[in-house]
Amino acid sequence: FLALKIRSHFNLEVFLKAHFYICTKTLTLIWYNSTRAKKAANFLRFRNLENLRSYIDRVKTNLQSSEDLRLKRKAESAALTRNAVIGDIFVSKWGWEQTNVDYFQVVGFKGKKSYILRKIGKEHHYAEGNSHMSSNVSPILNDFENDVEYCGRLWAENRIKIGNHYASLKSYSTNEKGERVYSLDYCSWYA
Fold first, then answer.
1. Neighbouring residues of 109: CB distance < 8 A, sequence distance ≥ 6
2. Which terminus in the chain has less CB density within 10 A, N or C?
């Protein structure tokens, strides 16, 4: 059997020994999905020992880069701070073959990285260039659609995750009266 000697900040050696069984006599690599699995998930045969070692090196490199990416994202997540204040708006754009736009207003905070949000209404601005099933929309501040509160977890800088959707902090300008003026978002629908 081929010994795997791997050193890193996570225990890759234990992972590989627990999931791979390598027979150098038949040049077969046997993969198990878990340490408790009785049946092998996959068998890979190689023409020569160099191909087997090359494959194992690629697996080690991929696992190492995945772990490095996970640690990088964890460090970035730890460094995130909330930038929005109560009254700010997040916009979520989503849909397939149509563009749905939802607006959420910040009404409170939960923990260090979460917002309490409520869905608000939108105002349609029909333009001459839009079809009869599309328009531009803008949020209506404090026009809550219902009493349902959503929890939005900080995901990236000025971005949150609400359920299965992501939302971005909506930027605005201020007019002469001191009122917020939001840019328009394209929205479309089917009958």
1. 82, 115, 116
2. C
> In angstroms, rounded to a whole number, what is the distance separating the alpha carbons of residues 152 and 172?
20
Contacts of residue 144, defined as CB under 8 A and 6 or more positions apart, other chains included, come to 105, 118, 119, 120, 121
Is there a contact between 6 and 60 (Cβ–Cβ < 8 Å)?
yes
Q: Do the strands 185-188 and 134-156 form a parallel or antiparallel pair, or are they unpaired?
A: antiparallel
Phi, psi of 147 (to 5 degrees): -95, 5
Please give the Cα distance from 67 to 10 (Å, whole number). 8
One digit per residue, the tens of pLDDT, for the chain of length 191 reads 333 433 333 455 555 555 666 766 777 777 666 667 677 777 778 888 888 888 888 888 888 888 888 888 888 877 777 788 899 999 999 888 888 999 999 999 998 889 999 999 999 988 777 778 888 999 999 999 999 999 998 887 788 999 888 999 998 888 899 888 899 998 888 76
Q: Is the pTM of this model over 0.70?
A: no
